[in-house]
Amino acid sequence: NFLPYIMAAMWAKENKLDDAIILNNYSRIAETTIANIFLVKDGKIKTSALSEGCVAGVMRRYMSECLKKENIPYEETQMHTDELADANEVFITNAVQGIRWIKQCGKNNYNFKLAEYLHRTFLLSLF
Model-level pTM? Predict the structure, then answer.
């Protein structure tokens, strides 16, 4: 059902935002309107498990495989909105844009060290 994505994208546009986070029925983070979302806290990367309602994206699967090959701590799990405040980095992935670093979500600002490394290491050759 694309209706939640359309409504969230319209809300983001009305509020002059680049994107919006989609929550599942349990108010946990599923993804954004245009991409899978990843949170980084102390070097460990988390993304929503497929059971949380996110799309099984091509770039999500590719990123998962790359992280595992490089032994970068990675987990597919439940993600709660309060984790956004504690994250060091947030980035999104999709097959069109690769990795997009999220600079800010609400009052939270994020760095881009790991996202930049992942882009250089795994994506530059693809795009």
Answer: 0.93
